[in-house]
Design a protein that fits this description.
Blueprint: E1 2-10, E2 13-21, E3 24-29, H1 36-44, E4 51-56, E5 59-60, E6 71-74, H2 86-92, H3 104-110, H4 126-138, E7 144-148, H5 156-172, E8 176-181, H6 184-190, E9 193-198, E10 201-207, H7 208-212, H8 218-221, E11 227-237, E12 242-247, E13 250-255, E14 264-270, E15 275-277, E16 288-299, E17 304-311, E18 314-321, H9 322-328, E19 335-340, E20 350-351
Parallel strand pairs: 3-8, 3-9, 6-7, 7-8
Antiparallel strand pairs: 1-2, 1-4, 4-5, 9-10, 11-12, 11-14, 12-13, 14-20, 15-19, 16-17, 16-19, 17-18
Helix pairs in contact: 2-4, 4-5
Length: 352
C-alpha cells in the first residue's frame, strides 16, 4: 500500500495531491502538463517538493535519499547500456541488491526474455527494449514500480507486443505499480485503479471501470476518447471468424479474440460508438444489442449529451446529441437498447 501527499509550487502551476494506491496497477492519467510525471518523480525522490509525505507499507520513505527508497523506475526510453548484453543489463540492478538475483529466472519468464538474453540492445525492437528495462527495474528488488509513459515512444505494433506482458506484470509481480499515461485505451486495458489529475489537482481516484464511466469526467478524459469498461467472458469461437462473449446484458460478438475459452476479458467501449434504440432493432447490420437502463443523463454545454447506462452492476456510456434525447423522449429510469458495432472495438481495447 502506498500513501502519497504532495505539495509543490512551480512557476504558474501548483501541485497539490493526496491519494492511496493499493497493490496492482494504478494509472495516473491526465493531459500533458497536468503534473503526472512530477508525482512519480516526487515519490522516487527525483523531485524535491515543498511538502511530501510518502509512506510505503507503513514506512515513510519521503525523508530518505533516492537510492534508499527501494523503487524501480521505468522511463519513456529504455535507457539500456548499449555495450552490455540483455543478460548483463538485467543483472545490473541486482549488483546493488544481490538477493534480487535469485528472481532472475522468474522475471525472465514473466517478461518472455529468454530468447533475448545474448543480444545487444542494438538488435532489439522498441518493445523488446522496454521489456528489458522493466526486467532490470524488477531485478533491483523494488517495493514499488514507477513507470513514466513506457509505451509513448512505441508504434502501434510494438505497443500490441508489450501490452500482454504488462498485464502479466500487473497480475503476478505482487507490488504496487504507479503508471503514468495520457493514452486512455492503454489505461483502460491495464489499470486496476485510476487516478485522474487536472492542473495539479486530483479530480478522481477509484476502480478503473467506475472512473471511466463517470460522465462528469468526460471533458477531462476527452470527449472523443470517453467511454466505459465492462467485463465479458469468452464463450465461443464462431466458424465465421467472430468470437462470442457473454456480458451482464447479453452476448457481444467481436472479431476473433486471441484468448482461451472461459477467459474473463475487459472491453473498453467508446461512448461515441454506442447508439440508443427504444425497441430491440430489427433488420440492421449491428450484431451487438444490449438491454440496458438509463441511470443518468447529462446534457453538455454544446449539442451533445452523455447517458450512463446500467447493465447489471456495470456501467456503459453513450454520447449522443441532445436532439436525439428529445426526439426519443429519453429519461432516467427508462429501459432502452444500446447498439454497437463489432468493428468499433479495436483489439487494443480488449485486455485480460
Amino acid at each position: 500500500m502506498l500513501d502519497v501527499s504532495l505539495k509543490h509550487r512551480f512557476a504558474g502551476f501548483d501541485l497539490d495531491v493526496a491519494f492511496t494506491a493499493p497493490k496492482g496497477l494504478t494509472a495516473i492519467f491526465g493531459r500533458s502538463g497536468a503534473g503526472k510525471t512530477s508525482i512519480i518523480n516526487a515519490v522516487a525522490g527525483l523531485l524535491q517538493t515543498d511538502y511530501a509525505q510518502v509512506t510505503l507499507d507503513g514506512v515513510e520513505i519521503s525523508t530518505l535519499p533516492t537510492h534508499l527508497r527501494n523503487v524501480g523506475y521505468v522511463f519513456q526510453e529504455a535507457r539500456l547500456f548499449p555495450h552490455m548484453t540483455v543478460q548483463r543489463n538485467l543483472k545490473y540492478g541486482s549488483w546493488f541488491r544481490p538477493k534480487a538475483g535469485r528472481d532472475f529466472d522468474r522475471v525472465v519468464a514473466l517478461l518472455g526474455l529468454e530468447p533475448l538474453l545474448a543480444r545487444a540492445p542494438l538488435h532489439l525492437s522498441g518493445g523488446e527494449k522496454q521489456r528489458v528495462a522493466i526486467g532490470r527495474a524488477l531485478l533491483s528488488n523494488p517495493q514499488i514500480l514507477l513507470m513514466d509513459e513506457p509505451l509513448s515512444a512505441l508504434d502501434a505494433p510494438r505497443k500490441a507486443e508489450i501490452l500482454p506482458y504488462l498485464e502479466r506484470l500487473r497480475d503476478e509481480a505482487g507490488l504496487p505499480i504507479l503508471y503514468v499515461s495520457h493514452a486512455l485505451a492503454e489505461v483502460a486495458r491495464l489499470a486496476t485503479t485510476m487516478l485522474v489529475v487536472e492542473a495539479g489537482r486530483l479530480r478522481r481516484i477509484g476502480p478503473t471501470a467506475e472512473v471511466l464511466s463517470d460522465p462528469s469526467l468526460a471533458n477531462v478524459l476527452g470527449l472523443r476518447a470517453a467511454g466505459s469498461l465492462i467485463t465479458a467472458r469468452l464463450v465461443a469461437q464462431e466458424d465465421d471468424g467472430l468470437s462470442r462473449l457473454e456480458t451482464a446484458a447479453g452476448p457481444v460478438f467481436l472479431p476473433r479474440v486471441a484468448a482461451s475459452l472461459g477467459a474473463l476479458l475487459r472491453l473498453r467501449i467508446p461512448a461515441q460508438d454506442v447508439m440508443i434504440a427504444l425497441q430491440a432493432p430489427q433488420g440492421i447490420s449491428a450484431l451487438n444489442v444490449l438491454a440496458v437502463r438509463i441511470e443518468a443523463l447529462r446534457l453538455g454545454e454544446g449539442p451533445g449529451a452523455i447517458l450512463t447506462l446500467a447493465l447489471g452492476e456495470e456501467r456503459l456510456l453513450a454520447r449522443i446529441t441532445q436532439r436525439s434525447v428529445a426526439a426519443l423522449g429519453l429519461a432516467v429510469g427508462q429501459e432502452v437498447f444500446a447498439v454497437l458495432k463489432s468493428v468499433a472495438l479495436a483489439q487494443g481495447d480488449i485486455g485480460g
